[in-house]
Write a structure and sequence with these properties.
- It comes from Xanthobacter agilis.
- It holds the Pfam family DUF1289.
- This is Fe-S protein YdhL (DUF1289 family).
- Strand 12 and strand 13 (196-201) form a beta hairpin.
- By secondary structure, this protein is an alpha+beta fold.
- It has an eight-stranded antiparallel β-sheet with strand order 6-7-8-15-14-13-12-11. A seven-stranded antiparallel β-sheet has the order 3-9-10-17-4-5-16.
- The chain has two domains: 19-63, no CATH class; 65-295, no CATH class.
- It is elongated, with a radius of gyration of 21 Å.
- It has helices at residues 33-38, 44-61, 72-84, 203-209, 221-231, 267-270; strands spanning 19-20, 25-26, 65-67, 88-94, 97-101, 110-114, 117-121, 125-130, 136-142, 145-154, 167-171, 184-187, 196-201, 234-239, 242-246, 262-265, 286-294.
Length: 295
């Protein structure tokens, strides 16, 4: 008889394990040594009680972050609730190249669930979140500011580096927004594992971009920037487990981003090579998929 393996319980561990002898708490997760030892065999009620005590302990210890218990369907429920309440902004991408997705309190939106996939969509932007067991939520604390929510994956879950030149990807069969759905998509060639930044466009713009495919990042921007600014095509930013799309006007150099959803592409910051903003420190071995800035 085959017996299904018992799933491992969600753990507060962040991989920074060190019991402080002064208070008996782990400097990474704020559990006691006894709680850590019994975690694997603890029932749901015990784990829930410990989870409930951790925020106060983390605050008392001054920890910079803590792992959240949110997993899979529960994680998606919470993300949907935050979006429904217009409680903040999703920031998807890498340092210097991001899509910001949010909605105004009175703005209509759709929320669609298909198993462990959640799609949130307004007229101007959309985000699709997949929630496998390895997608992990963290709360990051900042002095004098609201905490940040970070969704991250183990570095081993990343694929290979993306292309480092303008690259035609063919028709976009996974479009979330209606504009130019199924149209041509072009990878801007940032050459990174943690994020892919691309544009989706109609045939006329695709014909103007195609001759420049193979031109390396970021030099190709001098060749294609005028056409992209003139058309403001849909921008698509993909990170592990997340796809974001923005359909909004791209401001000219030195111009102001529009209110609401928008994108940023700043080659001088991309060149620094950070996946997350350098002021934020995720646990070792995790790579950022998205931040949620609480309003």
């Amino acid at each position: 008889m085959n017996v299904a393996a018992r799933p491992r319980p969600a753990s507060p561990c962040i991989g920074a394990c060190a019991i402080d002898p002064a208070n008996g708490l782990c400097a990474g997760c704020a559990r006691t040594g006894d709680e850590i030892a019994l975690w694997g065999s603890a029932d749901a009620a015990i784990r829930a009680r410990i989870w409930a005590e951790l925020p106060a302990r983390a605050a008392a210890l001054g920890l910079p972050l803590r792992r959240l218990a949110w997993r899979e369907g529960d994680l998606l429920d919470r993300m949907e609730r935050l979006f429904r309440d217009a409680a903040g902004v999703f920031v998807v991408g890498i340092h210097g190249a991001v899509a910001e997705v949010m909605r105004a309190p009175d703005e209509e939106f759709q929320a669609l669930r298909d198993g462990l996939v959640l799609t949130l969509r307004t007229r101007r932007a959309a985000i699709r979140l997949e929630a496998p067991a390895h997608l992990t939520a963290f709360e990051l604390f900042r002095a004098g500011a609201a905490p940040l929510l970070a969704l991250a994956v183990p570095a081993g879950r990343l694929g290979p580096d993306g292309p480092s030149a303008l690259t035609a990807l063919g028709p976009d069969t996974g479009a979330l927004l209606p504009r130019d759905a199924g149209g041509a998509r072009f990878d801007l060639g940032l050459g990174r594992r943690a994020a892919r930044v691309s544009i989706r466009c109609a045939q006329a713009l695709a014909a103007r971009l195609a001759p420049h495919c193979g031109a390396p990042w970021p030099g190709h921007l001098d060749l294609i920037a005028a056409d992209i600014l003139a058309e403001s095509p849909v921008r698509v930013v993909e990170t592990p487990c997340i796809r974001a799309e923005v359909d909004a006007v791209i401001p000219p150099p030195g111009g102001r981003s529009p209110d609401g959803p928008h994108t940023h592409l700043l080659p001088e910051l991309v060149r620094m090579g950070f996946d997350a903003p350098p002021s934020l420190a995720l646990p070792k071995g995790y790579v950022l998929s998205a931040l949620f800035h609480l309003a």
